[in-house]
Amino acid sequence: MWKLKIAEGESPWLITLNNHVGRQVWEFDENAGTPEELLEVENARAHFYNNRFVQRHSADILMRLQFARESPLPPLPPQVKIESTSDITGEAIKTTLIRAIRFYGTIQAHDGHWAGDYGGPMFLMPGLVIVLYVTGALNAVLSEAHQKEMCCYLYNHQNEDGGWGLHIEGHSTMFGTVLNYVTLRLLGQGPDGGDKGAMERGRAWILDHGGATAIPSWGKMWLSVLGVFDWSGNNPLPPEIWLLPYFLPVHPGRMWCHCRMVYLPMSYLYGRRFVGQITKAVISLRNELYTMPYEKIDWNIARSMCAKEDLYYPHPLLQDALWAFLHKVVEPLLLQWPGSKLRERALMTVMKHVHYEDENTRYICIGPVNKVLNMLCCWVEDPNSEAFKRHLPRVADFLWVAEDGMKMQGYNGSQLWDTAFSVQALLSTDLLDECGPLLKKAHSYIDKSQVQEDCPGDLNFWYRHISNGAWPFSTRDHGWPISDCASEGFKAALALSQLPRDIVGEPISSQRFFDCVNLILSMQNKDGGFATYELTRSYPWLEIINPAETFGDIVIDYSYVECTSAVIQALAAFRKLYPEHRSQEIETCISRAVQYIQNIQKPDGSWYGSWAVCFTYGTWFGILGLVAAGRTYEDCSSIQKACDFLLSKQLPCGGWGESYRSCQDKVYTNLEGGRTHIVNTGWAMLSLIRAGQAKREPEVLHRAAISLVNSQMQNGDFPQQEIMGVFNRNCMISYSAYRNIFPIWALGEYHRHVLRS
Ligand code: LAN
To answer: Which of 26, 99, 247, 395 sits CB 3.0–4.6 Å from 716 for a disulfide?
Structure first.
């Protein structure tokens, strides 16, 4: 049976700053599990499989079953169902909250964080499997049980038309289909067979849509590494870009760190034209993926092909001209003497940066894509290197098992982020007796996860911002600072510092709070807003060189409403407690941030959020930022408009339900069939309550509260509904703890501010 291990790490190759606090690893133990337990798991899997086209998001049942065994659910008061607004009582809401909190306590990990599935994207596991395959480490890193579980996941997420999407809820794309088909092949599936002829159906999808020449650029790169696509069919990724002077706007040091960190190892592999061993499987794949014989493919034409199903950001003409010039003129020069000298130097520079990133994330790396690319580069540089050995045990940090199988996650988890929100949600309920033990453990997680150092060396040389005082998104070992994670962690830590120590434990020291303030202040952009990990370092027009057809807005780090609002909220909370500390700077920072938020509000009163779906999420942050800065509904027309916007989207049954299509199309779109979603409903309620809706027309909030209360399950849990997270405009990602966090938070505030007022 699969077991989730928390905060453990045995391998001598692992390095950690805090005893692996927050680390999540699934291990398979053949001997574990009674027949009843194994049956429960089998039933959950079968249920997922049978409903997979209706409910595409798994519900973290394996983790839930495990926690239920380890910490049994305390007795719960009877479930509440409310029929009409006249039946709402404080008691009913309180009962619902107590049930929700008791359940949520049982799924808190022993180190204080809430674990959960951070899957969703369907293009990550192929990268891992290809890298393990070409480095010969597949069977050493992935046990038979792992590989079986991965295949199960891929079958579960094959669409009815035979293809695979960019993410679990997406339509079939060439990117998803070719890469996942190849993955199944490398995991040992023959070209025929699979679940219900899965392989044939997958291949048919590929060939019907033009064959793998039409895969987007990241797919071309992966296939080239494997040896089933020619490197000359790739647009150039010259590593020499790292040798350019920093004042040029295209310098990679000025790009969004995720973009920079992904193209860094890619440029190494491109510069080396690295290809793995040509095995039988590789030769066979060359015959399976194309509509014509492999030798006859015109790679120059393939270079700029992309299937229409994949095209989110079509290359501007100028970009294609640039690629043609680099491909036809510059590359040939760099491949022969004396240009080749420059290439060697560039490749060495690139590897220096790869190693720096590896070492300063304890070999976790900033994300799942550069994780596996860096690992491959280290192996290409030296297959026996210590670096490669250190990479291997960190692969497990990205893998997650649920009833739909084993997946590769979008990060090494969302531990800190979920825990910081959870603390705020629990505090909103004011039920300290119930929440005390949960808060104490969460406090300890937040304490141990703060980043307490900058990266070593000359930060400018490494293109790194400071990180001391930040909170990361996942774990301290990951360590990259993010403005809004720092802010949410900070808000939670500040609130906890005001509660009795015997209940929630010792507060974090003022000095560490000051470090966080220092970090936050250093991250404000010229436009007054806040970007994610760093300052905005270059210009939006650089987006014309975004080569990734499937993603939008990846080249530079932009200011976002979420980040900006989180910062305002954190600084506002801080200055209430420490009115003397850097007060003038904080004042200026907040007022510029407020200006920014007002400037980017849409004419219909909404804000467009970038990291979850989308208008409900952005508007939640927009309103909370303004309110935290002291604006009120009465004196601020932005807030009025934002409330009108939210009210106009409330569904007849009282909730809200926003589809991921909102993000792609940038137009508010309801979920299919007008379904409500508890997470959207939570955001909308939290926004309206903060904006004083209770004084104006509480009826709206009553109806929303009913929809949350009635959605609670027998055991106090809430159901997993549609996927809610987003990145780069087009790819969805799971936030599995939100189903518990936002109903608790919204009902907590509702109980306190609506029913009691
Ligand atoms: C994340 C996860 C966290 C997220 C929030 C903190 C929630 C957000 O408010 C700011 C942006 C951030 C940090 C974020 C950015 C993009 C990430 C890193 C991800 C969605 C997790 C995965 C994604 C990453 C880019 C996936 C790899 C794919 C590439 C295109 C490189």
So the answer is: 99
